[in-house]
# Entry
Amino acid sequence: MIQLRKKTWGIHKKPGEPNFILPLKERFMQQINPERIEQAEKNLQWLKENPTLFDEIKDYYVHFKYPVFPETDIDASLYINGFWSSDEEFFCQRFHAVSIKEKIKLLAQPMNPKLKMLALRILGRYSSDMLSSGDAEEFLEYMRRVNTQSEEEALIDYQGKKRLTPQAALNEIALIRSERILDEADSQLLNDFEVYLRGQALNSLLRNTGYNAFL
# Structure
């Protein structure tokens, strides 16, 4: 099984997701170079000659499930939590339709904790001054982890890895500048990104010291 994972790969797609991979039709085949077509034909022949292995490959990818990392941040948990229930979808629709004051009231209602966290983050970014003290503190803790100086405190992504923080990105920018010769366009991109990251860090600092800032 380990060898299967190393030597093969599959495309995973949920029902309803767009077809990012073009179907194997003649009009698309014209865009593939002869070498790739030859390799594909060799692969098909190998599968015909190794039906047992082919069955093992099919079984592995048909039953494949994304690994679950319990600490994954809610913003990165698309493939973990699945779809919302009908009641949760109704809450989302209502939340987006009502005024800020009504959104605050909705936040106080019993609900899925993950759904509440998403709602809290929306309100915290744009109307933090209207949050209750408890909700404001929870949002500030989230922002602290987003902009943390410590890699250990960084949020977890869908692969179970630490998410890139603004400080880590600034460190990478400095490393790129020291190791590469950049043209004017690349240099401007890095400059713009650095300004953005430092602005995000300043916003976080202002929030943590009691000031409101627009993200």
